[in-house]
Design a protein that fits this description.
The complex is a heterodimer.
Chain A (H helix, E strand, L loop, with lengths): L18 H10 L11 H4 L15 H7 L2 H4 L20 H4 L13 E5 L1 H10 L8 E6 L2 E6 L4 E5 L4 E5 L8 E6 L5 E6 L4 E5 L5 E5 L10 E6 L5 E6 L4 E9 L2 E10 L6 E6 L14 E7 L2 E8 L3 E7 L9 E11 L2 E12 L2 E9 L5 E10 L4 E8 L2 E6 L3 E6 L4 E7 L9 H5 L9 H6 L8 E4 L2 E5 L4 E6 L2 H10 L3 H12 L13 H24 L7 H15 L2 H11 L4 H13 L8 H14 L2 H10 L7 H11 L2 H12 L4 H13 E2 L2 E2 L1 H18 L8 H13 L14 H9 L1 H12 L6 H16 L6 H15 L8 H12 L7 H14 L7 H10 L3 H11 L2 H10 L7 H7 L2 H5 L4 H22 L4 H4 L5 H14 L4 H14 L1 H10 L5 H11 L2 H11 L2 H17 L5 H14 L10 H11 L2 H8 L6 H11 L4 H45 L19 E3 L5 E3 L18
Antiparallel strand pairs in A: 1-28, 2-3, 3-4, 4-5, 6-7, 7-8, 8-9, 10-11, 11-12, 12-13, 14-15, 15-16, 16-17, 18-19, 19-20, 20-21, 22-23, 23-24, 24-25, 26-27, 27-28, 29-30, 31-32
Helix pairs in contact in A: 9-10, 10-11, 11-12, 11-13, 12-14, 14-15, 16-18, 17-18, 19-20, 19-22, 20-23, 22-23, 23-25, 24-25, 25-26, 25-27, 26-27, 28-29, 29-30, 33-35, 35-36, 36-37, 36-38, 37-39, 38-39, 39-40, 40-41, 40-42, 42-43, 43-45
Chain B lengths: L16 E11 L5 H10 L12 E10 L2 E10 L9 H5 L4 E7 L3 H17 L5 E7 L11 H11 L2 E4 L8 H11 L4 H7 L3 H19 L1
Parallel strand pairs in B: 1-3, 1-4, 4-5, 5-6
Antiparallel strand pairs in B: 2-3
The chains are: A alpha+beta, B alpha/beta.
Amino acid sequence: MNVNGNGDSGLSGPDSLDPDQDDHGGWSKSPVQSTPVKTPTRNSVLNDDESLVSEEDLHTYQQDLLAPGMESRGDTASINSTGSSTSTGRPPSLGSTSRRSTIPSASIMRHYVLRAVSSQLQAANEGLTVGVPSAMCAGKLIAVGTTRGVVICFDWSQRQRWKYDGERDQGQVTAMAINPDSTRILVGYARGMVYMLDAADARVLRVIPSDAHTYSTAVIHIKFTDSPALALLSDIGGSVFEIGLKRVLGVRSWDCTCVFSGSRGEVVTLEPLLLYNLPAHPLAGSVIVAMATLSKMMLVSLRPQVRILFTQSLRSSPTTLPLLSWQFVVIQVADSRVMDPVLAVARNDIIAFYQISLERSGRISCHGLQSVSLSYSLISCLWLTSRTVALIDTNETLHLLDVRSKQELESLDLSMIEIVYNSAAFKGLATGGNVSKAMALAGQRAVYSSVHSFGNQLLLIGSKTVHVISMRLWVERIDSFVKENRLDEALKLAMEFYTERGKSVLGLRGAKEVRQKLVKEKVIDTLEKLVDAIVNSSPHVNYPQDIQLVVEHCIELGQTDLLFYKLWDGLSEDKISFLAAIEAAILDGKLTDVPPEIMQRLVSYQESCSKWNDLETCIQRVEVTSLDLEQVMTICKRENLYSAMISVWNRAMNDYTSPLHELIPILRDQILDGVVSVDGRKLGNLLLVYIATCLSGAAGADRAETARQQVVRGLCSQHSQNANDDETCFPYIRTLLEFDTREFLNSLVISFSDASLSMQVKQRLVDIIIQVMTEGSSFKCNEVSWVLCTLNSSAVGRGLRVDPELYVESLHRLTTEDDQCSHAERQSAFLQLLTSGSLNELAHDTLLQLAKSAMFHQVCAVLYEMRGEYVEVVKCHLLDPTRRPYIFSYIEQAHPSAVLSILLPDVLQELLAIDAKKTGQLFVRLKPQNIPDVLPKLTDQQTYRFLEGMLEESDLDTEHMTRYVCLMCRFEPDKVFNVVRTHDNIELGPAINICQERGLDRATAVLLERSGDLQGAFNVLLSRLQTAIETNQEGTEEMTEELVTLAQRGNNVLDSKTSWLPLLMCLLKLNSHRLLQRVLSNADLNLVSELHLLLQHTNGTLGELRGLIMGLFVKCRDQRRMLEATKRIHIAGLHGELASVVQAAKAGCRSPSLCLVCDAPFKDNLCLFRCGHGFHVDCIHGQQESQCIQCNKD
Amino acid sequence: MANRSGPQRPNGTAQAKICQFKLVLLGESAVGKSSLVLRFVKGQFHEFQESTIGAAFLTQTVCVDDTTVKFEIWDTAGQERYHSLAPMYYRGAQAAIVVYDVTNQDTFGRAKTWVKELQRQASPNIVIALAGNKADLANKRSVELEEAQAYAEENGLLFMETSAKTAKNVNEIFLAIAKKLPKSDQNAGNASGQGRRLVESESTAKPASACCSK
């Protein structure tokens, strides 16, 4: 027995757990440094409603965890209900515990003081010998340790069981633990001693001296584990020890082994995972402990083997302590549910959740789930339910946090409790302060031993009292509202539970159905209470809103009895709000079955408010048995609520004809001279829809056939009810056709597509429609033919007949002029008939004849096209004034045989008449080979246009081009010049002739120039200029320009006497200095000779020539200047050259000794170069002597 | 519902026992069904009563012994075209009044067919009353009292000759029906065609009570 062997093994023993020795890097490599890990895939687990099943699966385990006295709370009674406790029987004393009035009654948390325990503690401390509470533990018993080392044990009936004060010199009790079956209590003291007591009689079973762990250090945590032979202890030195508890041959023994040395980081809290309630859990049998130092959290498995499972850095303010708490949570993984432990790790203001699960491989893994940041710093964090954690902050406020929604549900000020802090232990006051500074600082606010969670209760010890904070059951929460007469809130809360939106739902267990049922009962119960309150005119009721609330909930829960009898009968005055709520429910479609009495009232109410639309909708929505038909129909008839009437007729009386019998006459009255009023249109559309739905069998499976038959019968009725003698046949169909022929037929056609409508019925309808349409003249002929088309397309294909005679008749009507429709309308009607195929049976010739007689050229065209007579088609198009302009594009796209038509003389003439130019284009594109044949037949004008068109399409040959130019001279002389200039392939002779003939000088000039007669061209232009000057025309400048350029071009050919001179002469007359200048600046004029010429040929005074002479002077002066300048430059150049030669000659050079050619020494004549090479003159004789032959330099 | 004040849910407003019954009037057109009801419910009589469309709904409460009987009266239209409506109303009814015109033998014949139809189609416990209306026109009588009486006895019907115009026997016949109607809870429940609602309320009531008593 190595009792003492490891006694001082704070210094890591061989099997102690030292993470550093394991892998130092592993610590630093911990996944995230300061913030808890978030695994995204797992993160949603806690938030996912489906994945978590709040309570029921935990039921068993919680049941066991709860003390027998507490057990019953889960099911029924509040702690106040005295007689209801079970086996152990909670005596009335607990029932008498007073409730603190500081807490709002509807809150989730309920706060009790364990009065009896508190007063006994106080009484015990009367002589100050016991001290105040400092630690506690709770199981089936509550044990409280005091500052004087006394332990007092109570049962749940708050009776003191025993008091143990054996060890006064060990300082205060700093840690306590009770084992799962509440038979052993471990008590740790400030001086390090640990006692194990028998819970029944305080017998000391084991004494573990303070040197079993780190010597003389306060025990801060002592915990039982699942294994009865293993307890855990941590001391103020920060080390963790496992205490093996053995009993051999009746002798109890123990041994203490260090599992974690404080020298590697001081463990301040540890929390073993307790699985004893879940023997089937896959983790059962292993011992897993969560430990936390001031810098990290670690998860360690002690059994079956010692292993670190997970570590996580936990850096935060040094004044805060890490907090650990385990809870089992049911988590939906894929298709199975697992119940995994979730560890809440809190420090300062962050709580992180970790799920521990056993993988298939047997490895235990740990995933971060989510983390919650809070606005306060925590001193305690404990699970209450699998969805709720209780948090105590540094201000001693208790917060209830919903884990899934991260919502704070409630908070409660606990400062009046005066929670006991364990700081004395953490500072090591009893052992002389042998504590690290970090520990002392962090332990300032430690409450590890004074706050415990127990099931869904929180136990706290204050300096004088012991407190219980429990979560209320859902029923209690509702009841507390009820008690306060806040019935509406109670109802809302209950509904929240019902719709599973409620938070912190406690005590609601079982399968979903069971829970739903339970809650539903409660909701109904609450609802009844509220109804009672309303009926009894309770002052707590907020009338209109609450009535609405009740109505809504009654309907939602199907409590129509309550609604329609109790509430309705109970309501004395204010039935309006009830009716309004009912109305809303009906309009929303939530309510269809209303007692007739109430419905009657509702209808009267709506009538009084003139809410006709709502009334109509309500009538259509509610069951027909709820309606007072007399009342409803009277109102509907008065207010023209046709839909409602149809609905009642159909549903109540199974009557599908009345809508036709009653409403079509109304519609007829609304149609005046073919114009339908707004109301009439509404009604008409309603009827059309009605007919369509009935015929297509949309009335409902069992009624479809009845509806169809009745409607058909109604429609086909020869006369309306109570008809006058002069009524025309089939009034209904006639009215509907008059109302909207197209829509009516459309709705019929839709129903024709339904196979269940018999062929006879369809045929009958078709026949009647045709009869109505054709006889009499109330319908326009195009409408008639439209009807025929529609019927044909929908009916004939389905084996229905339409008399071919009708088509002929209708055609005759179309083709006679006297109808009120326009020609175009009739024509399109004809076309429709044609294209719909209804005229297939008629001979084309007949049709053609008809069409021709009525001038329906389009129809003719279509007919011809059908027959493939494309030439005729073209002719028709030509005849049709609307189509004529588009004939060219038509021909281009038309069938090849249509193209042939353009060769026909009459067609050609037509085309030419429309547009000769386009005809030309057309020919080039389609029939180029026929152009020569065509051209002679054309008039000059046409030919010109034709050629123009041809030219636009492609180039013309010389012959046509010449012809074209000639014609152009005739028709559009202005354009000739451009054409002539841009086209070369013109026969010059005839063109010049005709141009000259037409006086087109410029064109002539161009042509002459092209023919080589530059002088002629010049003359032409000059004469033009002269005439222009004489007649004082504009544009002389351009003319001059032209002449000058021409003269320049022909410089070689033209004689200046015949060119420049006349030009100058001519310009002189104009007396324009600028133009003159322009001519003179032409360089190649022999000025003097010209002057002479001028003087010879003019007889005028000098004054006439003044301008010219001045110009000559200026020119002369310029030229002289230029000459001088040139001379100067030339001389300067020569001088420079000479200077450089002289310079070079002055430079000396070294003479070589040998000739580079023959390697012989120089004797007499040598030739020396500046590069230093020398040769015999003979040696380089015959070669150029100015350059060195070696390096080609001078 | 006839017995919503069931034993399981003591009603705060419960004074005397209230029974609610659905009653339907049937008969040939223009025999005076609407007049009869109007006389009973409002104490009025119109010489020229418009013909009813479909069916009209009225309620009237009468006291029989210590029970309040509330009649939900469906006054159906007698015109042939509305006959298809009738089953909808008599199907859930606990009582029916078949009315004929004493001055018109045909209406009596028609009344007989109504009775037959009721006996065949309606709820088996239905209380049927035969009313020979327009008894004030006794001088034009064509249906003898004895004949009708015999027929009523034969078929186990309540029978009275009434007159909406003079109010003769109008309240009486309704009272007679009220008396004859079963007022004990089970019977009313069974007789009810609205069993659906009853069943529903029972099903919800039972667990609720279990919960409360626990």
